[in-house]
Amino acid sequence: MIRVAIVGTGGIAAACHLPALRTQAHRAEIVAAVDVDAGRVKAFCAEHGIAGAYTSVEVMLAEERPNLVHICTPPHLHAEQAVECLRAGAWVWIEKPVCRSLAEYDLIAAAELDAFASVVSQHRFGSGARHLREIAPELGRALVALCVTAWYRDDAYFEVPWRGRFETEGGGPTMGHGIHQMDLLLSVLGDWTEVRAMAGTLDRRIETEDVSMAVVRFASGAMASVVNSVLSPREESYLRFDFSSATVELRHLYGYRNADWTSGSPLWNPPEDVPSSHEAQLAQLLDAFERGDAPPMSGPEGRQSLELISGLYASAFTGKPVLRSELTVDHPFYHRLDGGKWS
């Protein structure tokens, strides 16, 4: 059995990670959970039948020696906790946003000596997205794409102390919300080369933006328009891919099935109906663990959406186009998404 620990017992752990792990109960056992709030972690473990309740990642790693750790804490804790787990020999599966900057991501990658880190990117793993990637070469050249995250979060949502601040969340809805659709966009169109963006704080009482918009050029020559908002009362997640011989569209909110996709192409016929979900990605991660291979969404693949987001913020803050090739260690937005450095 693969020994699993969960770090962070808030909403995402209960809503997404526990159900995913239950589908893999034949090969994965949850042996421990960690939270800084002793009462909360004890209640979480009692409710879900988990034997080990801890308030320290270090102590949990030493006593439980898990094979895999699910990191479900606020973003500013991800890099430090991931590195700690990797150095202890445990694989990590990190909720997105994976960390606050490319600099932090590269610290995580450097710690992958005897274990791997993988980023939660569940929209890549639904059958609709997998089918689109399979048939895309037969649809002709990718030309135009639309990528819209039109969500709604009221002021109360941002009363959680770590939300809406660069120091603790890394960025705003571009980082924490739009990343889902942008990651799926990248999985289909591949590497980007240039981004031109704007961002603004129009209505929420937060430090970060509540809206961003961008135009992105890809290495293939395709171009995409990207919108990220938490001010949209009629919520929708929308992607449109215009190839030279077909259009493929996806309309959903927080997750999709095959019925949420449309295409006029006779090639569009997914052979199975697998929803985009933590369950779908976790199954592939555990397969990789059992083989001893690097899992999906590790290494450069896991870095992909964070690169685009870093470029988007850099363009929005500087008012200039940003090339992907510019985002090196010498670039200020490599270190922090508001252009500074973590103290």
Description:
Strand 4 (68-71), helix 4 and strand 5 (91-94) form a beta-alpha-beta unit. With 343 residues, the chain is α/β, with parallel strands linked by helices. The chain has 12 helices and 14 strands. It has an 8-stranded mixed beta sheet. A 6-stranded parallel beta sheet has the order 3-2-1-4-5-6, with helices on both faces. The protein is globular and about 55 Å long. Helices cover 35% and strands 25% of the residues. It has 2 domains: 2-121 and 281-294, NAD(P)-binding Rossmann-like Domain (Rossmann fold, 3-Layer(aba) Sandwich); 123-277 and 304-333, 2-Layer Sandwich (Dihydrodipicolinate Reductase, domain 2). It has helices at 11-22, 38-48, 57-64, 75-87, 102-110, 127-135, 166-169, 173-176, 179-189, 278-291, 299-318, 332-335, and strands at 2-7, 28-34, 52-54, 68-71, 91-94, 117-119, 142-152, 192-200, 211-218, 223-229, 231-243, 247-252, 261-263, 322-323. It holds the Pfam family GFO_IDH_MocA_C3. It comes from Acrocarpospora corrugata. One of its GO terms (molecular function) is nucleotide binding.
Summarize the structure.
By secondary structure, the protein is α/β, with parallel strands linked by helices. The chain has helices at residues 11-22, 38-48, 57-64, 75-87, 102-110, 127-135, 166-169, 173-176, 179-189, 278-291, 299-318, 332-335, and strands at 2-7, 28-34, 52-54, 68-71, 91-94, 117-119, 142-152, 192-200, 211-218, 223-229, 231-243, 247-252, 261-263, 322-323.
